[in-house]
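Archive entry. Fields below.
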Amino acid sequence: MPEQFASNANAAVVRRRPILAVTCGEPAGIGPEVSIRAAWERRAEINSVLIGDAAFLAMIAAEIDPKIRLVALSQQALRNNGLPNFGLDQVAVIDCQLEAHVQPGKLDARNGRPVLRTLDLAIDCALQGIFDGIVTAPLQKSTINDAGVPFTGHTEYLAERSATPQVVMMLATDRTTPPLRVALATTHLALKDVAAAINFDSLSRSIDILHADLQKKFGLKQPRILVTGLNPHAGEGGYLGREEIDIITPVLDAAKARGIAVSGPYPADTLFQQKYLAEADCVLAMYHDQGLPVLKYASFGHGINITLGLPFIRTSVDHGTALDLAAAGLGHADHGSMLAALDAAAQMVQAGRQGKA
Ligand SMILES: NC(=O)C1=CN([C@@H]2O[C@H](COP(=O)(O)OP(=O)(O)OC[C@H]3O[C@@H](n4cnc5c(N)ncnc54)[C@H](O)[C@@H]3O)[C@@H](O)[C@H]2O)C=CC1
Ligand SMILES: NCC(=O)COP(=O)(O)O
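PREDICTED_STRUCTURE:
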């Protein structure tokens, strides 16, 4: 094929690729490495824009593979003109400089605020439509707090920064048959505060958000949602807690009346069996450590985390900063979850485009 036709064909491919911001997370953890590896591996399908300290990322990229081409893009240029037509063989980087030198595996609170700035930039640009979605590498929640910013997680921060009153955290894997999806009625909350956070309105909104996003983002016409109880044995008829009787059952009855295919409350310890999951699209668990161990046991390193209810697409990995692996040097972390997070965000972008077409 003559050169000019080949490059025109490439330009068309580049324009169609989803543009995803990839925030590289805690610099002392495995976030930068898994972000670079995954963005590079998917460079033919996705316009990834890495957001992090450009010099630091360039150093890691060179160590991973000297063939990796990271191309700097200024924040101003991005905000003014969007993403230029980068070729098929490079990955864009936007520089958000760190404040302290990075020692892999060692946290430094001086880098807490710079990490948050990567998120701020990604959120602002996603809200402006410059990015089709955001994919986040793990950050160290405690470091942000040590930097003097109260912070419980990306999920809550994204909601607050985008003025979204309520969102739902959902982790998912397609490594099981059928795919396993576990959503949470509460997010990062101390266990002692969970029961008080579950009320008629908040649980009803969680179900509505889950139902709507399973339709919109996953193409499920009538998603089937199984809901756990809060207490052991779903409250044992009220003898082990009354939340199932006083709150969860009335919420489910009202949701059914709105046409949502929801059932429960089921005892969480026995719900995760194939005979129940085979008939469901998602489980809604009441709190973080009730639902996520099952998902992570089934797929750790390949699952994804999705924030439902936001005005933009956001996916993330199913793991944390793995400081132990970062301290051991490059090449120890599995970047499968980051690949899955990129792929899932790209699929949601395409689903959204088809929905609008
Ligand atoms: N989306 C996010 O930003 C998330 C952040 N975190 C944060 O990460 C920090 C550390 O959390 P931990 O509970 O220690 O969980 P962790 O996931 O960082 O580590 C748990 C274990 O899994 C291993 N591991 C983690 N990711 C791996 C990978 N990609 N490949 C191979 N092995 C891997 C680690 O070496 C460690 O043994 C905390 O500050 C937590 O808040 C945790 C989960 C999600
Ligand atoms: N265990 C999942 C988790 O902690 C996700 O946190 P984040 O994406 O809200 O930062």
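CURATOR_NOTE: Residues 30, 136, 138-142, 154, 301, 305, 316, 319-322, 324-325, 333-334, 337 surround NAI (ligand 1) (CB under 6 Å).
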